[in-house]
Amino acid sequence: METLVFALLNGAIYGLLLFMLSSGLTLIFSMMGVLNFAHASFYMLGAYLAFTITEGTSFWIALFLAPVLVGGVGMLVERYGLRKVHAQGHVAELLFTFGLAYLIDELVKIFWGRTAVNYRVPEILDFPLFTLYGAQYPAYRIFILFVAAFMLVALWYLLKKTRAGLIIQAALSHPHMVGSLGHNVPLIFMTVFGAGCALAGLAGVIGGNYFVTDPAMAVQMGPIVFVVVVVGGLGSLEGAFVAAMLIGLLQTSAISINASLADIFGFIGLGADTELGEITIASMAPMLPFLLLVLILMIRPRGLMGDREV
Amino acid sequence: MKSTVKAALAAAVSLCAVQAAQADTLKMAFIDPLSGAMASSGEPAYQSFVLAAEHINADGGVNGDMIEILGLDNKISPKESLVQLQKAIDQGARYIIQGNGSSVASAIIDAVNKHNARNPGEEVVFFNYAAVTPEFTNEACSFWHFRFDAHTDMKMNGITDWIASREDIKKVYLIGQDYVHGEAVAHAAETQLAEKRPDIEIVGNELHPLAKVKDFTPYVQKIISSGADAVITGNWGQDMTLLVKAAADAGQEIPYLTFYGGSNGAVAALGEGAIDTLYQVSELAANMEDVPEEQNALVEEYKERFPDYDYYYHRAFVTLDMFDKAAEEAGSNDPIAVAYALEGMSVEGGYGAATMRAEDHQLQQPLYITTVAADVTYPVDNTNLGWRLVEGGVIPADAAETPTTCEMERPD
Asked: What percent of chain B lies above the pLDDT cut of 70?
């Protein structure tokens, strides 16, 4: 029972963080048809900017300012980079974002050094909130949960319930028609790209101090974010949400399972002393998202809720 | 007037030229992670070697040659390390220094053995200051490899002796990194505990991916629900810091017996919670009594030079001191001559004498079990906490010594 409760709690938090990261990527993909390889770099940028702002002022200012700054950088990238490259086709765009990821990586190393920075949880949130089955639960984790849930609701409201959301949705599927109706489609694109980057930045602000803020964080997060987007279905926000939660829960609960492959497949004759049988479910946790990716691509290439083929 | 200035300048220039001709540089390649998740282990080690080299150079160098430490980033990858090794050899380095990751050390030993077999007269020697898999000085021993750190079985002896003396510990949890080092630690703990305290139950034996886990909370919750009384881990670098950080967040207060609790940031992550819960077995006991004055001065100098880190890699200084002494005794900086001179060599370390055992090239030195305490002379991580020797925590060199199965082949 306690294993289940903890796995659910931790999985939900990790899943929400993943969704915060991948929602921006999904939006950008459905809009431009381009996978933004630099997306996780914006996540890293958010964490580092928050670290610097926290040093100078306070965490609460960083919580608002850092995502705005990252969003601003994203808009500039779209306006002066992607838009120019767009004329050369998708491959050029892909290569552009690929290069951008490396550029941001190196810039971060130059400005903030090659090792992890000491980006800490704010003192006001650095206390155990409650004790569950003998383990204390840090307040900051619940804070992450609330920020992520708030962002989720805000995003849903913006896209589904406002006029701006309607126009964005229309621009995603029928940009030419929206343009003919007199809306400034390039501006919409720029705003959505910026907003997507800002979301990644926000994930960096609240995730950076709970995990580690180091130059490797983008590279480590990048592949998982792609898995979320592909499994959820390219261009589907709902799908990305389901996939993010699924991966979050899968990965954290796998760690808490003590069983080995032999315990599960023992009935077909897999012995506990064989090399394959010795592998535990817990040690397979990092592999599971990618296993899911391969399975989804084989069985349902358009993802859980996607409306187009990969 | 003008001519005197000219003459003085000319004299100065020629003097420089003469000095430059006399003092060659002796290149030593330092191959370890200098970026990424594990750089918090590689960087302070690099700085330790640089400082140790500066001291030797200021003292007249090695047979008159000035040591230059080339820092090469291997990103903790064995493949990348071999590229860097080749680069180092091409740049003229005949001494290789590496420590972080037994997977890397194993690749380097292999490559050095091959290189030396194929290029007689251009041999290189490998100084391993931290890769502790026992095989390297047992069945896989090599004449070209010298280990300046106590290996897993030696360190585990210290830990299991301490556990054996604690009657209240009935259940032990093992957690480690999923590669040869983590496996060796778990194996040593299991066999030694079974021997010394057969009543102890091992309630968990977990290996997690190396340098990939960002959040150890699920692992810590598993440890809590297992009801363990103590945890043994060989984790290092970021994996050490994040593990104890998650344990502190969960409010866990059982002893963590570690090889590398001194990893940069671990004490800071635990804060006051580290007192009497974080233990380390190492060759270093900075706050011990009877430490020679110059050793304490070195600790202070290190902190002044590198305020982000603390004096931790004592073995870096032992390595270069012993190398210097061996080269002067051999009267040459040639790797083969130095390697022969190193066999059986002893130096007076700041924390007890260290001897390089000739039969397997494993350094023998006293080990210390320390735990975190407030009110110490040399605090770490820019906190007011530091490492204090536990009662009965001194393991003399002959008690830490383990037999070897090494059958060394020596060149003529």
From this structure: 94
